[in-house]
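dumping this here before i forget
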Amino acid sequence: MKNNRLIIVSYRLPFAFETVNGGTIVKASSGGLVTAMKSLDFSNATEKPVWVGCADFSRRTWEKNKHLVNEDFEYVPVFLDRKIQQDFYNGFSNSVIWPLFHYFTTYVDYQEKDFVAYQKANEAVSETVAQLMKPQDIVWVHDYHFMGLPKLIREKQSDATIGFFLHIPFPSYELIRILPQKCKEYLLTGLLGADLIGFHTNDYNIHFLQSVQINLGVQHKIWKVNYQNRLIQSDAFPVGINYSLYHDSYDNADVVEERAALKKAYKDNKIIFSVDRLDYTKGVMQRLDALEAFFRKYPEWTEKLTFILVVVPSRDEILKYGERKVMIEQAVGRINGKYGTLIWRPIVYRYGSVSFPQLVALYSACDVALITPIRDGMNLVAKEFVASRKDHQGVLILSEMTGAANELSTALHINPLDENDVADKMRIALEMEPEEQARRIAIMQRRLKEYDVKKWATSFVESLLNMHSVQQIEPTPLLKSETNFSLQERYAQARSRLLLLDYDGTLVNYKTKPEQAAPPLEVINVLGRLASRRENYVVIISGRDQQTLDEWLGFLPIDMVAEHGSYIKQQGLWRRDILDDGSWKQIVSPVLIDFVTRCPGSFVEEKSHSLAWHYRSAESETGFVRSRELINTLENLLPYQLRVIDGNCVVEIKSTETDKGKVAKQLSLARPYDFVLAIGDDRTDEDMFSALTLENQYTVKVGPGTTSAAYRVEGVHEVLGLLKDFTSETVPL
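structure:
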């Protein structure tokens, strides 16, 4: 990252102050994020990377002891008001976002004061980051605590390079809809302030993009979103682990000693091991139910198996977590009492942390690792277990609800809520031959070694820098005299010109009813004068049907494209340009009619090869909400050969073969044109803009909104002004 200083933002700083024997010491964190950030190459950076996080200590403690902290980063703590900190972290972050994003909707406890605190905390951190930022800095924001932060930073520094990574799942848009409208908008638009948004899996990415489209009406294409004149990419970056740390630790003396002690303690018994934080998402209770089902179904394993369960304390101050601890301990007692003997306990339970050597020893001594979260963004425990098995032995039973399941394909995958399935997989794992264990472990280790935590961090930063370098630039306003004059000059110098003109919203303003948008005399005169020039080939390229275009413009010496490319008129003759029998309309039409009944003011327009649901005359909020619902319905209903177009107050369904971009490309290649101009206002015209990118091809977006066009005009009046200038006597021909 030459010349790029990295500013990391996470909720916690990578260290903690602890009081030992009356003195203060610093305890460094050893989590995956810390490892990832330290693995990045800062050797060419001119300045030390910065780490910003919320302080869990007082200003006095910081000033007195900050000299004790390592110098890997410049650490900048943010000191929040105690009440804001409480409501921000325990409230909105962990009582709303955490349960909702993990599909525990009944655990969501929304309080207005908590959301306000979340906003204030994000604003406070953004102020700190803005004060620190310098040109060329990279800001990498982490996790659900700061989903509003990218937008806030962007508002303070519009050209900043900002990445965001979500370490938990991103849920279905249906769950996002549970949030109050202002929360949805705050979180989603907050994320869209970034240049790059990262998730663990493609599923999470798809859920995010669907939520943006359904809730904000912002479309996406190939993992990219056009929003507020910026191009934002979202993608999957499955977080890795420090593979060599766990793999090589197998032979460390303290690990060997701990492993030997475990083997001796449990003699000939098979060992199943689980370790998790105390959290309802981790499925610990379901794990215990499955163990009980296992002993019930396979009693021959009594006294031959020990289940070691380590639960690490977490968020004790939140009521749900305290309740979970009591439930786990009651279940452990019940199962030990039911199946245990005077000399054997089926479950060895520990509530507390274990040292690193103890953890690796448990990973490498057990016969089976049982990892069964009900929902988990990734789950690094599963990866750590696989990496630790230098002996190529051991079996991983893994919940299919984890992000890690996508990568660890040779684990035994289970549904954590199906206790009988888990019990059966436990038996399979315990009886698996050593050769099969080795085969499965080797496949998973190859993946983890190739895509470790360093690869994850490096690939994210590289993608972020690449995305920022290709950021969409705001189209140049043609209203500027120098820009307009330059385009006029290029037009005048050309001896062969192609003019591709959209109709509605480009040559004429939108009308409440489509049939009211007949061309005024001014438009007819301009088109006639343009077409009269032998150097010009004028084409109207529209979503209108061929009959309407013929009725309104057929007498002019121009060619026309109807229904976005379904029909093309050249040399006075129409031809159909796609193969489509329209049978799909029998499926789609009833759906559109149903939406008409539920959205007063909307109506359906049928064309030869498309159907359009218009909602311009409907109440604006109702129309928008219904249009999002319709788009989602259609995208899950339609066969692959059909496409849903989210237009300007219209949702249109047509064949995938019908595309303004394809037609524009074909027409532009038909002759060696010196000058190609395409003007349009709608999302359908973006296909045309994307297809015309050569030096002599000029694209113009009419009106506001994100676009791929090189130029922008405010409205129809400026389009007509531009075209009139082309026909002016002052333009040399």
